[in-house]
Amino acid sequence: MSGFKKWLRLIIVFVLCLAIFGCQETKSKGEAEAPNILNDVEQKTFEEVNNYRLSKGLQPLSLDQRIVEQARKHSQNMADKKVPFSHEGFEERVAATKIPRTYAAENVAYNQGYSDPAARAVEGWIQSEGHRRNIVGDFDLTGIGAVKSSNGTWYFTQIFLRTSGQTAKKSGFSWNLFR
Prior knowledge:
46% of the residues lie in helices and 16% in strands. By secondary structure, it is of the alpha+beta class. The chain has a four-stranded mixed sheet with strand order 1-3-4-2. A hairpin with a 5-residue loop joins strand 3 (141-148) and strand 4 (154-162). The protein starts with a helix and ends in a 17-residue tail after the last strand.
């Protein structure tokens, strides 16, 4: 009987371990890379961009809080009409991250009335040669800011940084900053 009790205890421990550890939700690589610093729309944008990169055989981008802060500020300023919808101040945003970099780029977007504003923003970027070039560019860090204005318009800013490497490919469509 004592042997039976030992086996029963082992089975119970095994079942409990499966229940605790085996049933946890798995995440895609893009999701696993993101610390909990993004709102839901930013998180979805981050995942969509990284999933696109993965579909092209590229490494996912890592998220950096300092870049998120700058991207979010710019989106908020556009939403509040403090600055026009533009890349105005891009170099200052990148410098404010205080991250040593080889080069940088930025995508901005806005949309209104979509059930999935993040997916719509990323779709628009992918359809645009210059924005797509930034998404698949030789970058390793990113930050995304998505802010909803008082009239329901979503404003997006995604900043891309390359923190290592010697050269950058210039693009007529992206905003590059060389050190």
